[in-house]
Structures are given as structure tokens and as C-alpha cells.
Design a protein that fits this description.
The structure holds two protein chains of two kinds. By secondary structure, chain A is an alpha/beta fold. Helices cover 38% and strands 29% of the residues of chain A. Chain A contains five helices and seven strands; from the N terminus they run H-E-H-E-E-H-E-E-E-E-H-H. A five-stranded mixed sheet of chain A has the order 4-1-5-6-7, sandwiched between helices. A two-stranded antiparallel ribbon of chain A has the order 2-3. In chain A, a hairpin with a 6-residue loop joins strand 2 and strand 3. Chain A is elongated. Chain B has a single domain, classed as Sandwich (Immunoglobulin-like), CATH 2.60.40.10. In chain B, strand 1 and strand 2 form a beta hairpin. Chain B is elongated, with a radius of gyration of 21 Å. The chains are: A alpha/beta, B alpha+beta. Chains A and B meet through helix 1, strand 2, strand 5, strand 6 and strand 7 of A and helix 1, strand 7 and helix 3 of B.
Chain lengths: 201, 220
Amino acid sequence: MKRNNVLINNLARAVMLVMVVGLAAGTTGCRTVGIDVSPTARIQSASDQKIALSVGLMLDGRFCTNSFIAPESGLIHPFGPALKEQSISLCEQTFEKVTVSTNGVVPAGVDATLTPEVQRCAIAYQPRGRSEDITLLLEWTLRSGDNRNILWMTTVDGHGDQGKSTVFQLLFDDLANKSYQAFQESPEIKLLIAKKSGAAM
Amino acid sequence: MQKRELLKLTISALFLVLAGAGCGTLTIPQYTAGPSTQAKTVESQGLKITVDPILDAERGNTYFKVDPANSRVDIIYLQAENASTNSTWLLNEANMHLVVTGQADLNAQDQDVKGHYGTANGLAGAAAPLLLFPGPDLLALPLIFSSAKSGSDASVVQKNFVDKEWLNQTLSPGQRAQGFIYFNVKEHSPTNGATLRMDCFDVRNQQTNTFTFPLTYETK
């Protein structure tokens, strides 16, 4: 009887210990995760020949300061600065001429504008936080040179699903490669090039 | 004596943590089933759109880990094909609306709408500078976040919604795409009919082509 009481007491204490530790972990407040990635977009199959267009890369404050708070962990993921750097680098590797606009003013004389936007983000955690599995949907909109009419839109799904040390680099590599491929294969971009070269003749 | 008690206490706590955390990671299969027999297809100006609401528990549980009858998110499978030769169709969630009989129609991405039918689209407001994933009111998933395992399972379920989501895009001639759109449903009357309206825009010819799909809901 006494042994049973001791056992019950121990279990009760253990439950309390788990609850206290869990509560402490859950009330440590929001923490910010460091997004440590290469400043340049790492494109695996980058061609030496760039797309013969001059584009205005429209980066607004919402994109450049983008953050994602993971609902389960409360961790803040400030993707914005990396998204900005990677977008500029990606476009500079893809198009002949890139003019970056961060104030909403459409650069003069461009063939088209290109606007990136984060459509969605989600992070899944392994039990006990062993690793993260991230999906980020990045939307690209190509508009006419005056930034009015939509010419083409695509959304690429970037994934990173390994250990915490490499997950963000994998995510951004995936986004860069899929975006680059989408630009290269876009029939509307090819049409725009054809129109431009036709007009020049 | 105290050391022995501390040891017992530690072992008990570890046991409880491990029991709560479970061992495996939840895995959810990719959707490969395509449209079901109840799917509706409409073709206009070379654009063919198929809509298939996920109403059955089997597909809901298998591909989303939710029971459509008890969740407050409407899941609709969408397939589109551009069979035209000179049109490029823009299909984005901003131009997809769920219209309930007798209610004002709600834009899929309008976060400010506070209508009877709830705010849609079911997932997070990407338009906000700080991306927040939906709370329980947005994705009323039947999960209890009481342990490490269920917490990680919940994150897997939520991410699965994003992984399967329709990707906003233009479809050039010959292209096709598929994905899911989600509508958050706060109140769902079984007697009300609902219509999915999609305004597809031809970016080459600057014309809008509107598709409407009557949907029958039996969920609450």
C-alpha cells in the first residue's frame, strides 16, 4: 500500500515536472531564427546566354521585410532580406539588364517589370525538433513595361527538408533553380523577346 | 534515499515524455487520384476547368487528415487545361470566389471580408507583412496540441495544405495544372447552396472568362 502511494506520488511529480518544463519551453517568447544563406542565387544549370530583356525588378517593403512565424514553435523566420538578395542575384543571372526598384517607381525604358511575392509558407517539425521541413510558395508576375498589364505569372514551390544547418540554403537553392527554369521556359517571355526583336528590325 | 527518489522521478518523467512524443513522423501521401466521378467540368473559349469538392471522409482523411464533415475548411480540387491556341489564361486565387445563396459573395483572398460565410481563403494571409499561419479559427483541424508528437503532427498537417495548394499562374496554350483551393467556413448551412465562381483572365486578349460551378454541401 505504502509502495503504491510512493509510486503514485512519483508519477504525480513526474507529470508536474513535464508540465513545468513544457510550460517553460512554451513561454520563452518568440525567438528569431538566423537565415544564413549564400547572398548569390546558386543556379545549377545557369546558361552563359542571358534572356535578351531589360526588366524592372519591383521589390516592395512587404517582400523585403517578409517574416514567417511558425505557429507551433513561435519561431520568427525573417526571410525578407534573403529573398531580396536572392531575387536580385537570380534576375541579374537571368536577364540582360536588371533595374531594381524598391520604392514602387517603375524604372524607365524597361521591356517588362517582374514582381516577386510570397504566396504562402509552412514549416513542419519532426518530433522533439530534430529537423525542419519548409515549403515556401514564391509568386512571380511579369507585367508590361509600364507595370500595368499582366503578361505572365508563375508560382514556384521551394522545399528544404534536412537538418537545421542546411535547410534554408536548400530552400533558397530550390526556389532559385525552379524560378530560373520557369523564366527560361515561359512562352510569354519568349513571345516578348520575339516582339522586341521584331520591333527592332 | 533522496537520490533514489530523484532517479525514479527522472525515469518516470522520461517515460512520460517518450510516451507523449511517440516514435514516428506523420506522413501524408501526395494526391494522385485526380478528379472523382462527382467532379464537374466546364469548357469555354478553349479553357477546360474541372472542379471536385472533397466531401468524402476517405479522401479527406487520406490526403489531408481531416474529416470534411467536421472541419471548417472546404477543400476543392481544381484542374485546368488551356486547349486554346492564342489565349493565355490567368488563374489565381484572388479571382476565385465562393458564393453562398442569399449571401454576398466573398473573395478567396480578401482578408477584410467578415461575411456570414466566413473569411476565405482558408490558409494564412500572405498579404500581411508578417506571415501568420491560420489559427484554430481559420483551420479548425481536429487536433489537440498537447504533446510534442501531436504538435509536430499538426505542423505536418498544416504544411500539407500548403504543399497541395493551387499555384497562382498563367496557363499558356497547351499547358495544364492542378491543385487545391481552400475556403474557411465558419458557418455552413446544409440548406444553403454554394457556387464557386472563377474569373479567368486572358492576358493576351485582355478578356475575362467567368466560370461558375454549383456545389452542393452537406457539411455543417
